Give the backbone structure.
Amino acid sequence: MHMADALVVPAVAGTMYLASSAAAGVSVHKVKLENDPKKIPVMGVMGAFVFAAQMINFTIPGTGSSGHLCGGLLLTAILGPWAGFLAMIGVLLTQCLFFADGGLLALGCNIWNMAFYGCFVGGLLVWKPIMQTGASKQKILLASVLGSILTLQLGAFSVVLETSLSGITELPFGAFVMAMQPIHLAIGLVEGLITAAVLCFLYDARPELLWGLDRSRAAEGRLTAGKTLGILAALTALTAGVLSLFASGLPDGLEWAMEKTAGTSDLVSAGGAYDAAEKIQNSLSFLPDYAFRGSESPAGTTVSGLVGALIVGGLCLVTALVLKSRKKS
Amino acid sequence: MSRISGAIHEMQTIEESASRDQWVNRLHPLVKFLVTLFYLVCVVSCGRYDLPRVLGLALYPFVLFELTDLPLGQALCRLRLVLPLVCIVGIFNPLLDRRPGAELLGFTLTLGLLSMLTLMAKGILTVLASYLLVATTPVEGLCAAMRMVHIPRMIVVEFLLIWRYLSLFMNEVQKTTEAYRLRAPGQKGIAMKYWGSLMGSMLLRSIDRAGEVYEAMCLRGFTGDFPSGRFPGAGRRDLVYLAGFGAGILFLRLFPVLVLIGSIVAR
Protein backbone atom coordinates (compact mmCIF):
# COMPACT_ATOMS: atom_id res chain seq x y z
CA MET A 1 0.00 0.00 0.00
CA HIS A 2 3.07 2.26 -0.04
CA MET A 3 2.42 5.16 -2.41
CA ALA A 4 5.07 6.28 -4.87
CA ASP A 5 5.85 9.94 -5.54
CA ALA A 6 4.42 9.60 -9.04
CA LEU A 7 0.94 8.95 -7.66
CA VAL A 8 0.50 12.35 -6.04
CA VAL A 9 0.63 15.98 -7.11
CA PRO A 10 2.46 18.51 -4.89
CA ALA A 11 -0.82 19.95 -3.51
CA VAL A 12 -2.04 16.57 -2.23
CA ALA A 13 1.45 15.60 -0.99
CA GLY A 14 1.79 18.93 0.84
CA THR A 15 -1.65 18.66 2.44
CA MET A 16 -0.92 15.14 3.67
CA TYR A 17 2.50 16.27 4.97
CA LEU A 18 0.72 18.98 6.98
CA ALA A 19 -1.84 16.53 8.39
CA SER A 20 0.81 13.95 9.29
CA SER A 21 3.10 16.63 10.76
CA ALA A 22 0.27 17.83 13.01
CA ALA A 23 -0.29 14.26 14.26
CA ALA A 24 3.49 13.83 14.73
CA GLY A 25 3.71 17.13 16.64
CA VAL A 26 0.97 16.08 19.05
CA SER A 27 2.59 12.64 19.46
CA VAL A 28 6.02 14.13 20.24
CA HIS A 29 4.36 16.38 22.84
CA LYS A 30 2.48 13.46 24.42
CA VAL A 31 5.59 11.24 24.57
CA LYS A 32 7.56 14.12 26.14
CA LEU A 33 4.83 14.47 28.77
CA GLU A 34 5.26 10.80 29.69
CA ASN A 35 8.84 11.76 30.66
CA ASP A 36 10.19 8.26 30.16
CA PRO A 37 13.77 8.59 28.78
CA LYS A 38 13.86 4.85 28.09
CA LYS A 39 11.05 5.18 25.58
CA ILE A 40 13.10 6.58 22.67
CA PRO A 41 15.54 3.63 22.48
CA VAL A 42 12.62 1.23 22.92
CA MET A 43 10.80 2.98 20.05
CA GLY A 44 13.87 2.71 17.84
CA VAL A 45 14.54 -0.94 18.64
CA MET A 46 10.86 -1.85 18.28
CA GLY A 47 10.72 -0.01 14.96
CA ALA A 48 13.71 -2.02 13.72
CA PHE A 49 12.08 -5.21 14.99
CA VAL A 50 8.81 -4.49 13.16
CA PHE A 51 10.70 -3.70 9.96
CA ALA A 52 12.68 -6.94 10.16
CA ALA A 53 9.66 -8.99 11.27
CA GLN A 54 7.68 -7.80 8.26
CA MET A 55 10.20 -9.64 6.11
CA ILE A 56 8.97 -12.99 7.46
CA ASN A 57 6.29 -14.67 5.39
CA PHE A 58 3.62 -16.62 7.25
CA THR A 59 1.82 -19.38 5.41
CA ILE A 60 -1.93 -18.78 5.08
CA PRO A 61 -3.52 -22.21 5.50
CA GLY A 62 -5.31 -23.55 2.44
CA THR A 63 -4.32 -20.73 0.09
CA GLY A 64 -0.68 -21.32 -0.79
CA SER A 65 0.03 -17.63 -0.24
CA SER A 66 1.57 -15.81 2.70
CA GLY A 67 1.21 -12.61 4.73
CA HIS A 68 3.02 -10.55 7.37
CA LEU A 69 2.13 -8.80 10.62
CA CYS A 70 0.41 -5.42 10.98
CA GLY A 71 3.16 -3.10 12.26
CA GLY A 72 1.02 -0.13 13.37
CA LEU A 73 -1.27 -2.15 15.59
CA LEU A 74 1.58 -4.22 17.07
CA LEU A 75 3.59 -1.11 17.95
CA THR A 76 0.52 0.55 19.47
CA ALA A 77 -0.32 -2.53 21.53
CA ILE A 78 3.16 -2.36 23.07
CA LEU A 79 4.20 1.30 23.05
CA GLY A 80 0.81 3.05 23.06
CA PRO A 81 -0.59 5.11 20.15
CA TRP A 82 1.66 8.20 20.48
CA ALA A 83 5.02 6.41 20.71
CA GLY A 84 3.77 3.75 18.28
CA PHE A 85 2.95 6.44 15.72
CA LEU A 86 6.45 7.94 16.01
CA ALA A 87 8.04 4.50 15.70
CA MET A 88 5.97 3.86 12.57
CA ILE A 89 7.17 7.18 11.09
CA GLY A 90 10.74 5.94 11.60
CA VAL A 91 9.91 2.64 9.89
CA LEU A 92 8.22 4.36 6.93
CA LEU A 93 11.09 6.85 6.61
CA THR A 94 13.61 3.99 6.52
CA GLN A 95 11.53 2.07 3.97
CA CYS A 96 11.17 5.13 1.77
CA LEU A 97 14.78 6.34 1.88
CA PHE A 98 16.74 3.10 1.86
CA PHE A 99 14.44 0.60 0.18
CA ALA A 100 12.44 2.86 -2.19
CA ASP A 101 9.24 1.43 -0.67
CA GLY A 102 7.13 4.59 -0.97
CA GLY A 103 8.31 8.00 -2.11
CA LEU A 104 9.91 10.86 -0.19
CA LEU A 105 7.27 13.30 -1.42
CA ALA A 106 4.47 10.81 -0.75
CA LEU A 107 5.77 10.13 2.77
CA GLY A 108 3.06 12.34 4.30
CA CYS A 109 0.41 10.24 2.54
CA ASN A 110 2.03 6.97 3.62
CA ILE A 111 2.34 8.12 7.24
CA TRP A 112 -1.34 9.02 7.22
CA ASN A 113 -2.51 5.87 5.41
CA MET A 114 -0.53 3.39 7.48
CA ALA A 115 0.74 4.94 10.72
CA PHE A 116 -2.15 7.28 11.57
CA TYR A 117 -4.91 4.76 11.01
CA GLY A 118 -2.89 1.86 12.43
CA CYS A 119 -1.96 3.64 15.66
CA PHE A 120 -4.80 6.04 16.37
CA VAL A 121 -7.84 4.37 14.81
CA GLY A 122 -6.61 0.85 15.55
CA GLY A 123 -5.17 1.74 18.95
CA LEU A 124 -7.56 4.29 20.39
CA LEU A 125 -10.84 3.25 18.77
CA VAL A 126 -10.44 -0.53 18.67
CA TRP A 127 -7.68 -1.85 20.95
CA LYS A 128 -8.23 0.40 23.95
CA PRO A 129 -12.05 0.15 24.24
CA ILE A 130 -11.92 -3.65 23.89
CA MET A 131 -9.14 -4.01 26.49
CA GLN A 132 -10.60 -1.49 28.94
CA THR A 133 -12.96 -4.00 30.51
CA GLY A 134 -10.24 -6.58 31.03
CA ALA A 135 -8.04 -8.57 28.70
CA SER A 136 -8.21 -12.11 27.40
CA LYS A 137 -6.82 -13.99 24.42
CA GLN A 138 -10.18 -13.89 22.64
CA LYS A 139 -10.33 -10.14 23.12
CA ILE A 140 -6.80 -9.74 21.78
CA LEU A 141 -7.81 -11.79 18.74
CA LEU A 142 -10.96 -9.70 18.26
CA ALA A 143 -9.11 -6.38 18.68
CA SER A 144 -6.25 -7.42 16.37
CA VAL A 145 -8.48 -8.69 13.57
CA LEU A 146 -10.99 -5.82 13.82
CA GLY A 147 -8.21 -3.25 14.13
CA SER A 148 -6.23 -4.61 11.18
CA ILE A 149 -9.27 -4.86 8.91
CA LEU A 150 -10.51 -1.38 9.81
CA THR A 151 -7.13 0.32 9.48
CA LEU A 152 -6.31 -1.39 6.19
CA GLN A 153 -9.72 -0.50 4.78
CA LEU A 154 -9.24 3.13 5.76
CA GLY A 155 -5.68 3.13 4.42
CA ALA A 156 -6.71 1.61 1.08
CA PHE A 157 -9.58 4.09 0.79
CA SER A 158 -7.18 6.96 1.45
CA VAL A 159 -4.85 5.70 -1.30
CA VAL A 160 -7.79 5.81 -3.72
CA LEU A 161 -8.84 9.26 -2.50
CA GLU A 162 -5.33 10.75 -2.70
CA THR A 163 -4.65 9.26 -6.14
CA SER A 164 -8.03 10.37 -7.49
CA LEU A 165 -7.60 13.89 -6.08
CA SER A 166 -4.20 14.03 -7.78
CA GLY A 167 -5.96 13.34 -11.09
CA ILE A 168 -3.40 10.93 -12.47
CA THR A 169 -5.70 8.02 -13.29
CA GLU A 170 -8.63 7.65 -15.67
CA LEU A 171 -10.04 4.92 -13.46
CA PRO A 172 -13.41 6.10 -12.03
CA PHE A 173 -13.46 6.54 -8.26
CA GLY A 174 -16.02 3.76 -7.70
CA ALA A 175 -14.16 1.21 -9.79
CA PHE A 176 -10.87 2.07 -8.10
CA VAL A 177 -12.49 1.64 -4.68
CA MET A 178 -13.89 -1.72 -5.78
CA ALA A 179 -10.46 -2.83 -6.91
CA MET A 180 -8.71 -1.81 -3.69
CA GLN A 181 -11.10 -2.50 -0.80
CA PRO A 182 -11.88 -6.25 -1.20
CA ILE A 183 -8.23 -7.27 -1.54
CA HIS A 184 -7.33 -5.26 1.55
CA LEU A 185 -10.18 -6.92 3.44
CA ALA A 186 -8.47 -10.27 2.94
CA ILE A 187 -5.02 -8.83 3.73
CA GLY A 188 -6.42 -7.17 6.88
CA LEU A 189 -7.87 -10.46 8.11
CA VAL A 190 -4.57 -12.31 7.66
CA GLU A 191 -2.49 -9.50 9.17
CA GLY A 192 -4.89 -9.37 12.10
CA LEU A 193 -4.53 -13.10 12.75
CA ILE A 194 -0.72 -12.92 12.65
CA THR A 195 -0.65 -9.86 14.93
CA ALA A 196 -3.07 -11.59 17.31
CA ALA A 197 -0.84 -14.69 17.45
CA VAL A 198 2.16 -12.56 18.48
CA LEU A 199 0.20 -10.48 21.00
CA CYS A 200 -1.42 -13.59 22.54
CA PHE A 201 2.06 -15.06 23.04
CA LEU A 202 3.13 -11.82 24.69
CA TYR A 203 -0.02 -11.83 26.85
CA ASP A 204 0.87 -15.31 28.11
CA ALA A 205 4.56 -14.57 28.65
CA ARG A 206 4.73 -10.93 29.82
CA PRO A 207 1.25 -9.31 29.93
CA GLU A 208 2.68 -6.21 31.67
CA LEU A 209 4.24 -5.22 28.32
CA LEU A 210 0.89 -4.71 26.61
CA TRP A 211 -0.56 -1.21 26.51
CA GLY A 212 -4.07 -0.29 27.66
CA LEU A 213 -4.75 -3.42 29.68
CA ASP A 214 -6.68 -3.14 32.91
CA ARG A 215 -5.12 -6.13 34.62
CA SER A 216 -7.31 -5.84 37.72
CA ARG A 217 -10.33 -6.71 35.56
CA ALA A 218 -8.64 -9.39 33.50
CA ALA A 219 -10.71 -12.28 34.87
CA GLU A 220 -14.12 -10.65 34.52
CA GLY A 221 -13.34 -9.52 30.98
CA ARG A 222 -12.66 -13.03 29.75
CA LEU A 223 -14.55 -13.65 26.54
CA THR A 224 -15.83 -17.21 26.20
CA ALA A 225 -16.12 -19.05 22.89
CA GLY A 226 -19.92 -18.82 23.21
CA LYS A 227 -19.78 -15.04 23.75
CA THR A 228 -17.44 -14.61 20.76
CA LEU A 229 -19.72 -16.65 18.52
CA GLY A 230 -22.71 -14.66 19.81
CA ILE A 231 -21.03 -11.34 18.92
CA LEU A 232 -20.05 -12.64 15.48
CA ALA A 233 -23.59 -13.95 14.89
CA ALA A 234 -25.12 -10.59 15.89
CA LEU A 235 -22.71 -8.72 13.59
CA THR A 236 -23.50 -11.10 10.73
CA ALA A 237 -27.26 -10.67 11.26
CA LEU A 238 -26.86 -6.89 11.32
CA THR A 239 -24.79 -6.85 8.12
CA ALA A 240 -26.86 -9.40 6.22
CA GLY A 241 -30.28 -8.29 7.43
CA VAL A 242 -30.03 -4.51 7.78
CA LEU A 243 -26.93 -3.15 6.06
CA SER A 244 -27.71 -5.18 2.90
CA LEU A 245 -30.68 -2.83 2.34
CA PHE A 246 -28.21 -0.01 1.70
CA ALA A 247 -26.13 -1.98 -0.82
CA SER A 248 -25.17 0.06 -3.89
CA GLY A 249 -27.20 -0.53 -7.04
CA LEU A 250 -24.22 0.45 -9.19
CA PRO A 251 -22.37 -2.31 -11.09
CA ASP A 252 -19.48 -4.05 -9.32
CA GLY A 253 -15.88 -3.86 -10.57
CA LEU A 254 -16.17 -6.77 -13.02
CA GLU A 255 -19.57 -5.60 -14.38
CA TRP A 256 -18.21 -2.10 -14.75
CA ALA A 257 -15.16 -3.36 -16.68
CA MET A 258 -17.40 -5.51 -18.94
CA GLU A 259 -19.73 -2.60 -19.60
CA LYS A 260 -16.74 -0.44 -20.59
CA THR A 261 -15.17 -3.01 -22.89
CA ALA A 262 -18.18 -4.92 -24.30
CA GLY A 263 -20.88 -2.24 -23.90
CA THR A 264 -23.04 -4.53 -21.71
CA SER A 265 -22.59 -6.26 -18.36
CA ASP A 266 -24.86 -9.19 -19.37
CA LEU A 267 -23.27 -11.96 -21.37
CA VAL A 268 -25.64 -13.42 -24.00
CA SER A 269 -25.23 -17.16 -24.44
CA ALA A 270 -27.29 -19.67 -26.40
CA GLY A 271 -27.22 -23.42 -26.82
CA GLY A 272 -28.54 -26.61 -25.26
CA ALA A 273 -26.10 -26.72 -22.34
CA TYR A 274 -26.75 -23.08 -21.44
CA ASP A 275 -30.55 -23.56 -21.61
CA ALA A 276 -30.42 -26.66 -19.43
CA ALA A 277 -28.18 -24.90 -16.86
CA GLU A 278 -30.54 -21.89 -16.83
CA LYS A 279 -33.57 -24.17 -16.21
CA ILE A 280 -31.82 -25.89 -13.30
CA GLN A 281 -30.76 -22.52 -11.84
CA ASN A 282 -34.31 -21.09 -12.16
CA SER A 283 -35.83 -24.10 -10.42
CA LEU A 284 -33.22 -24.07 -7.62
CA SER A 285 -32.93 -20.36 -6.86
CA PHE A 286 -35.68 -19.62 -4.38
CA LEU A 287 -34.56 -15.98 -3.96
CA PRO A 288 -33.67 -14.88 -7.53
CA ASP A 289 -31.59 -11.68 -7.76
CA TYR A 290 -31.64 -11.42 -3.92
CA ALA A 291 -35.46 -10.87 -3.75
CA PHE A 292 -38.72 -12.81 -3.40
CA ARG A 293 -39.87 -14.29 -6.70
CA GLY A 294 -42.06 -11.73 -8.50
CA SER A 295 -41.81 -9.16 -5.71
CA GLU A 296 -39.94 -5.85 -5.32
CA SER A 297 -40.22 -5.83 -1.52
CA PRO A 298 -37.01 -4.79 0.33
CA ALA A 299 -37.75 -7.59 2.81
CA GLY A 300 -36.54 -9.95 0.08
CA THR A 301 -33.02 -8.46 0.33
CA THR A 302 -33.02 -8.85 4.12
CA VAL A 303 -34.19 -12.46 3.94
CA SER A 304 -31.65 -13.19 1.17
CA GLY A 305 -28.85 -11.83 3.35
CA LEU A 306 -29.90 -13.83 6.39
CA VAL A 307 -30.50 -17.07 4.47
CA GLY A 308 -27.18 -16.69 2.65
CA ALA A 309 -25.34 -16.12 5.93
CA LEU A 310 -27.03 -19.18 7.48
CA ILE A 311 -26.12 -21.40 4.50
CA VAL A 312 -22.49 -20.23 4.49
CA GLY A 313 -22.27 -20.65 8.29
CA GLY A 314 -23.75 -24.15 8.01
CA LEU A 315 -21.34 -25.14 5.25
CA CYS A 316 -18.37 -23.88 7.31
CA LEU A 317 -19.62 -25.85 10.33
CA VAL A 318 -20.05 -29.06 8.33
CA THR A 319 -16.58 -28.64 6.74
CA ALA A 320 -15.03 -28.03 10.17
CA LEU A 321 -16.76 -31.13 11.61
CA VAL A 322 -15.63 -33.29 8.67
CA LEU A 323 -12.04 -32.06 8.99
CA LYS A 324 -12.12 -32.63 12.77
CA SER A 325 -13.47 -36.18 12.45
CA ARG A 326 -10.82 -36.97 9.80
CA LYS A 327 -8.09 -35.63 12.08
CA LYS A 328 -9.34 -37.82 14.95
CA SER A 329 -9.48 -40.95 12.82
CA MET B 1 19.07 -14.78 -2.63
CA SER B 2 16.23 -14.65 -0.07
CA ARG B 3 14.22 -11.51 0.55
CA ILE B 4 15.97 -10.86 3.88
CA SER B 5 19.51 -11.41 2.63
CA GLY B 6 18.61 -9.24 -0.38
CA ALA B 7 17.60 -6.43 1.97
CA ILE B 8 20.78 -6.85 4.07
CA HIS B 9 22.87 -6.72 0.89
CA GLU B 10 21.00 -3.59 -0.25
CA MET B 11 21.67 -1.87 3.08
CA GLN B 12 25.37 -2.72 2.95
CA THR B 13 25.70 -1.50 -0.64
CA ILE B 14 24.00 1.80 0.16
CA GLU B 15 26.22 2.36 3.19
CA GLU B 16 29.34 1.59 1.16
CA SER B 17 28.26 4.00 -1.59
CA ALA B 18 27.41 6.71 0.92
CA SER B 19 30.79 6.44 2.64
CA ARG B 20 32.85 6.78 -0.57
CA ASP B 21 35.22 9.73 -0.76
CA GLN B 22 33.79 11.55 -3.77
CA TRP B 23 32.95 15.21 -4.38
CA VAL B 24 29.17 14.51 -4.24
CA ASN B 25 29.54 12.64 -0.96
CA ARG B 26 31.46 15.59 0.52
CA LEU B 27 28.68 18.08 -0.31
CA HIS B 28 26.57 19.45 2.52
CA PRO B 29 23.70 17.00 3.20
CA LEU B 30 21.10 19.77 3.49
CA VAL B 31 22.02 21.06 0.02
CA LYS B 32 21.57 17.59 -1.52
CA PHE B 33 18.34 17.10 0.43
CA LEU B 34 16.90 20.41 -0.85
CA VAL B 35 17.96 19.79 -4.47
CA THR B 36 16.36 16.31 -4.37
CA LEU B 37 13.15 17.67 -2.87
CA PHE B 38 13.01 20.44 -5.49
CA TYR B 39 13.58 17.90 -8.26
CA LEU B 40 10.80 15.64 -6.94
CA VAL B 41 8.35 18.57 -6.81
CA CYS B 42 9.31 19.58 -10.37
CA VAL B 43 8.77 16.02 -11.68
CA VAL B 44 5.43 15.35 -10.02
CA SER B 45 4.08 18.81 -10.88
CA CYS B 46 4.38 18.12 -14.63
CA GLY B 47 1.06 17.71 -16.43
CA ARG B 48 -0.41 14.24 -16.85
CA TYR B 49 0.20 14.25 -20.63
CA ASP B 50 3.49 16.18 -20.49
CA LEU B 51 5.76 13.26 -21.36
CA PRO B 52 8.44 15.32 -23.22
CA ARG B 53 8.94 17.60 -20.21
CA VAL B 54 9.20 14.65 -17.81
CA LEU B 55 11.69 12.91 -20.10
CA GLY B 56 13.69 16.13 -20.26
CA LEU B 57 13.92 16.11 -16.49
CA ALA B 58 15.63 12.69 -16.74
CA LEU B 59 18.78 14.65 -17.55
CA TYR B 60 19.40 15.41 -13.86
CA PRO B 61 19.66 11.80 -12.57
CA PHE B 62 21.55 10.61 -15.64
CA VAL B 63 24.13 13.40 -15.35
CA LEU B 64 24.59 12.59 -11.67
CA PHE B 65 24.87 8.85 -12.31
CA GLU B 66 27.55 9.61 -14.88
CA LEU B 67 29.42 11.93 -12.52
CA THR B 68 29.24 9.65 -9.48
CA ASP B 69 29.84 6.23 -11.09
CA LEU B 70 26.93 4.77 -9.17
CA PRO B 71 25.42 1.57 -10.64
CA LEU B 72 22.24 2.50 -12.53
CA GLY B 73 21.09 -1.14 -12.62
CA GLN B 74 21.05 -1.34 -8.83
CA ALA B 75 18.96 1.84 -8.65
CA LEU B 76 16.52 0.47 -11.22
CA CYS B 77 16.16 -2.71 -9.12
CA ARG B 78 14.57 -0.56 -6.43
CA LEU B 79 11.63 0.07 -8.74
CA ARG B 80 10.24 -3.41 -8.00
CA LEU B 81 8.51 -2.17 -4.85
CA VAL B 82 6.78 0.97 -6.11
CA LEU B 83 6.16 0.17 -9.75
CA PRO B 84 3.36 -2.41 -9.23
CA LEU B 85 0.96 0.14 -7.66
CA VAL B 86 1.96 2.75 -10.26
CA CYS B 87 1.21 0.20 -13.00
CA ILE B 88 -2.17 -0.75 -11.49
CA VAL B 89 -3.15 2.92 -11.39
CA GLY B 90 -1.86 3.74 -14.89
CA ILE B 91 -2.61 0.58 -16.86
CA PHE B 92 -6.28 1.46 -17.39
CA ASN B 93 -5.57 4.90 -18.84
CA PRO B 94 -4.99 3.69 -22.46
CA LEU B 95 -8.25 1.70 -22.31
CA LEU B 96 -10.37 4.53 -20.94
CA ASP B 97 -8.98 7.57 -22.75
CA ARG B 98 -8.64 6.87 -26.46
CA ARG B 99 -8.62 10.46 -27.70
CA PRO B 100 -5.69 11.18 -30.03
CA GLY B 101 -2.92 13.02 -28.23
CA ALA B 102 0.24 13.15 -30.34
CA GLU B 103 1.88 11.83 -33.49
CA LEU B 104 5.14 9.88 -33.29
CA LEU B 105 6.80 8.45 -36.43
CA GLY B 106 3.42 8.27 -38.16
CA PHE B 107 1.70 6.56 -35.20
CA THR B 108 -1.03 8.24 -33.21
CA LEU B 109 -0.47 8.14 -29.45
CA THR B 110 -3.72 8.35 -27.46
CA LEU B 111 -4.00 10.63 -24.45
CA GLY B 112 -4.48 7.54 -22.27
CA LEU B 113 -1.20 6.04 -23.48
CA LEU B 114 0.56 9.38 -22.98
CA SER B 115 -0.72 9.69 -19.41
CA MET B 116 0.32 6.09 -18.62
CA LEU B 117 3.83 6.62 -20.00
CA THR B 118 4.13 9.94 -18.15
CA LEU B 119 3.12 8.26 -14.90
CA MET B 120 5.65 5.45 -15.39
CA ALA B 121 8.41 7.94 -16.26
CA LYS B 122 7.60 9.99 -13.15
CA GLY B 123 7.73 6.81 -11.03
CA ILE B 124 11.15 5.86 -12.38
CA LEU B 125 12.69 9.35 -12.10
CA THR B 126 11.52 9.95 -8.53
CA VAL B 127 12.96 6.60 -7.39
CA LEU B 128 16.29 7.37 -9.10
CA ALA B 129 16.48 10.81 -7.48
CA SER B 130 15.84 9.39 -4.00
CA TYR B 131 18.47 6.69 -4.62
CA LEU B 132 21.03 9.35 -5.58
CA LEU B 133 20.39 11.14 -2.30
CA VAL B 134 20.83 8.10 -0.03
CA ALA B 135 23.69 6.60 -2.05
CA THR B 136 25.76 9.78 -1.71
CA THR B 137 24.84 10.84 1.83
CA PRO B 138 25.70 8.92 5.03
CA VAL B 139 22.78 8.33 7.37
CA GLU B 140 24.27 10.77 9.94
CA GLY B 141 24.23 13.41 7.21
CA LEU B 142 20.59 12.74 6.43
CA CYS B 143 19.79 13.04 10.13
CA ALA B 144 21.69 16.34 10.34
CA ALA B 145 19.74 17.64 7.32
CA MET B 146 16.47 16.58 8.94
CA ARG B 147 17.36 18.41 12.14
CA MET B 148 18.25 21.52 10.10
CA VAL B 149 14.75 21.56 8.59
CA HIS B 150 13.36 21.28 12.14
CA ILE B 151 12.12 17.70 12.10
CA PRO B 152 11.69 16.90 15.83
CA ARG B 153 14.78 15.47 17.50
CA MET B 154 12.81 12.51 18.84
CA ILE B 155 11.90 11.35 15.32
CA VAL B 156 15.43 11.85 13.98
CA VAL B 157 17.07 9.95 16.88
CA GLU B 158 14.57 7.16 16.51
CA PHE B 159 15.17 6.98 12.73
CA LEU B 160 18.92 6.72 13.37
CA LEU B 161 18.37 3.97 15.95
CA ILE B 162 16.14 2.02 13.56
CA TRP B 163 18.81 2.18 10.88
CA ARG B 164 21.57 1.16 13.28
CA TYR B 165 19.67 -1.82 14.71
CA LEU B 166 18.04 -2.90 11.47
CA SER B 167 20.94 -5.01 10.23
CA LEU B 168 21.14 -6.70 13.64
CA PHE B 169 17.47 -7.66 13.59
CA MET B 170 17.58 -8.63 9.93
CA ASN B 171 20.42 -11.04 10.69
CA GLU B 172 18.48 -12.45 13.63
CA VAL B 173 15.33 -12.87 11.54
CA GLN B 174 17.36 -14.52 8.79
CA LYS B 175 18.97 -16.97 11.23
CA THR B 176 15.60 -17.82 12.81
CA THR B 177 13.80 -18.37 9.52
CA GLU B 178 16.76 -20.34 8.15
CA ALA B 179 16.68 -22.60 11.22
CA TYR B 180 12.92 -23.06 10.76
CA ARG B 181 13.32 -23.79 7.04
CA LEU B 182 15.91 -26.48 7.73
CA ARG B 183 13.53 -28.19 10.15
CA ALA B 184 10.54 -27.81 7.81
CA PRO B 185 11.85 -28.20 4.27
CA GLY B 186 9.55 -27.37 1.37
CA GLN B 187 7.32 -24.98 3.33
CA LYS B 188 6.67 -21.59 1.79
CA GLY B 189 6.50 -19.69 5.08
CA ILE B 190 6.04 -20.20 8.82
CA ALA B 191 3.15 -22.56 9.68
CA MET B 192 0.15 -21.05 11.51
CA LYS B 193 0.70 -22.83 14.85
CA TYR B 194 4.18 -21.31 15.18
CA TRP B 195 3.20 -17.73 14.28
CA GLY B 196 2.88 -16.58 17.89
CA SER B 197 5.76 -18.43 19.54
CA LEU B 198 8.36 -17.72 16.83
CA MET B 199 7.66 -14.01 16.50
CA GLY B 200 6.74 -13.57 20.15
CA SER B 201 10.04 -14.95 21.44
CA MET B 202 11.92 -12.72 19.00
CA LEU B 203 9.85 -9.77 20.17
CA LEU B 204 10.64 -10.45 23.83
CA ARG B 205 14.36 -10.68 23.05
CA SER B 206 14.09 -7.34 21.21
CA ILE B 207 12.36 -5.63 24.12
CA ASP B 208 15.04 -6.89 26.52
CA ARG B 209 17.70 -5.77 24.07
CA ALA B 210 16.12 -2.29 23.96
CA GLY B 211 16.67 -2.04 27.72
CA GLU B 212 20.31 -3.02 27.35
CA VAL B 213 20.75 -0.58 24.47
CA TYR B 214 19.36 2.23 26.60
CA GLU B 215 21.69 1.42 29.50
CA ALA B 216 24.69 1.27 27.15
CA MET B 217 23.68 4.63 25.64
CA CYS B 218 23.36 6.19 29.09
CA LEU B 219 26.82 4.93 30.04
CA ARG B 220 28.20 6.62 26.92
CA GLY B 221 26.60 9.93 27.91
CA PHE B 222 23.39 9.87 25.84
CA THR B 223 21.24 12.89 26.68
CA GLY B 224 18.48 12.47 24.12
CA ASP B 225 20.38 13.60 21.00
CA PHE B 226 23.26 12.53 18.79
CA PRO B 227 25.96 15.07 17.96
CA SER B 228 25.97 16.13 14.31
CA GLY B 229 28.94 18.48 14.42
CA ARG B 230 30.56 16.94 11.33
CA PHE B 231 28.39 19.15 9.16
CA PRO B 232 29.03 22.83 9.83
CA GLY B 233 27.68 25.53 7.51
CA ALA B 234 27.47 25.16 3.75
CA GLY B 235 30.61 26.19 1.83
CA ARG B 236 31.09 27.86 -1.56
CA ARG B 237 31.12 24.50 -3.37
CA ASP B 238 27.79 23.58 -1.78
CA LEU B 239 26.22 26.86 -2.84
CA VAL B 240 27.49 26.41 -6.40
CA TYR B 241 25.93 22.94 -6.49
CA LEU B 242 22.65 24.26 -5.09
CA ALA B 243 22.48 27.16 -7.55
CA GLY B 244 23.73 25.18 -10.57
CA PHE B 245 21.58 22.10 -10.20
CA GLY B 246 18.62 24.12 -8.91
CA ALA B 247 18.72 26.38 -11.97
CA GLY B 248 19.24 23.41 -14.29
CA ILE B 249 16.23 21.56 -12.89
CA LEU B 250 14.10 24.72 -13.06
CA PHE B 251 15.11 25.21 -16.70
CA LEU B 252 14.18 21.61 -17.55
CA ARG B 253 10.84 22.08 -15.75
CA LEU B 254 9.99 25.35 -17.51
CA PHE B 255 11.13 24.44 -21.03
CA PRO B 256 10.45 21.11 -22.76
CA VAL B 257 14.08 20.57 -23.82
CA LEU B 258 13.34 17.48 -25.92
CA VAL B 259 10.69 19.34 -27.94
CA LEU B 260 13.13 22.23 -28.49
CA ILE B 261 15.90 19.85 -29.63
CA GLY B 262 13.43 18.00 -31.86
CA SER B 263 12.25 21.20 -33.55
CA ILE B 264 15.87 22.31 -34.15
CA VAL B 265 16.76 18.91 -35.67
CA ALA B 266 13.58 18.96 -37.83
CA ARG B 267 14.60 22.31 -39.29
